[in-house]
Specification:
Enzyme class: lyase
Structural class: alpha/beta
Family: Belongs to the ALAD family.
Keywords: Heme biosynthesis, Lyase, Magnesium, Metal-binding, Porphyrin biosynthesis
Order of helices and strands: HEEEHEHEHEHEHHEHEHHEH
Helix content: 25-40%
Strand content: 15-25%
Bound molecules: ligand PBG
CATH superfamily: Aldolase class I
Function: Catalyzes an early step in the biosynthesis of tetrapyrroles. Binds two molecules of 5-aminolevulinate per subunit, each at a distinct site, and catalyzes their condensation to form porphobilinogen.
Number of domains: 1
CATH topology: TIM Barrel
CATH class: Alpha Beta
Shape: globular
InterPro entries: ALAD, ALAD_AS, Aldolase_TIM
Amino acid sequence: MDLDSSGFPARRPRRMRSSPAMRRLVAETRLGVDDLVAPLFVREGITRPQPIDSLPGVSQHSRDSLRAEVTALAELGVPALILFGVPERKDDVGSGAWDPDGIVQLAIADVKAEVGDSMVVMADLCLDEYTDHGHCGVVDGAGRVDNDATLELYGRVANAQAAAGVDVVAPSGMMDGQVAAIRRALDGDAATDVAILAYSAKYASAFYGPFRDAVDVTIADGGDRRGYQQDPANAREAAEELRMDVAEGADMVMVKPALTYLDVITRARDLVNVPLAAYQVSGEYAALHAAAQRGWLDLEAAALEQLLAIRRAGADFILTYFARTMAELFAQA
Ligand code: PBG
């Protein structure tokens, strides 16, 4: 140990914690409005926003209430949003996902008309909100999700979202080859400017529970997504998924969920040089709210600590249901 002449420690880390200004000066990680992406739900056939019980403060939006929410986010300086659609009708292939008049396509156009280039408009690209069985792809005779048949449909969804004016498509279905298939479909349709944010390392997580309420998804026959989403036991496999997605042309990559996979975020940061996102998912958000409602946690402090941890682990930006609250907080500071 480094000791001074009287035998005391020569360096005292507490000197660097002596005042708020000192702590701000030496902070290694920063969290600000530029790091936030707001996930937003838009539901077909409603005229008023409908609160989601399991996600306090989050609603399924009508087309009108979505525009109002997005305008507020733009005024707060939030740089990006990601849209999820809740269609009125579902079918076995999820055709609502690529219908030019489907709810997400209409919402993309609405939002773009509202905020133009002042926000990056992303859309989740998957079929689960649109299929009656709740899987992220088409199901074959044996009840398995057919990878390659699904890729063709993802290409259609990408082209429909691009035609509606989306800036970034975010494939979340964990089909092999989805990034390449979507890039090919977009480029073949002259949508070379549309970027791909790949949910590269997406785990089969228990923390998606409240989201499935938000989009009215129940997986048929008590099924799950373990046949296509990653096993929580595996981190090296995540490195392979990330590497392959970048090779297939992903412009940005994501790790999801965030908090239970901070190690994967750190590995991803070392591995890839494209922008890295992390998704603080519905169950992570809901758990904090539930504890705070009982007075067991200070919501704002706990949320800030988790978001900072996700940044510290290596994420460049965070998809979080706290986006608006945090943007309001940062605007006051
Ligand atoms: C799939 C999708 C899911 C989430 C984002 N995209 C659900 C799933 O894979 O079951 C979860 C997001 C969250 O829990 O906040 N379209």
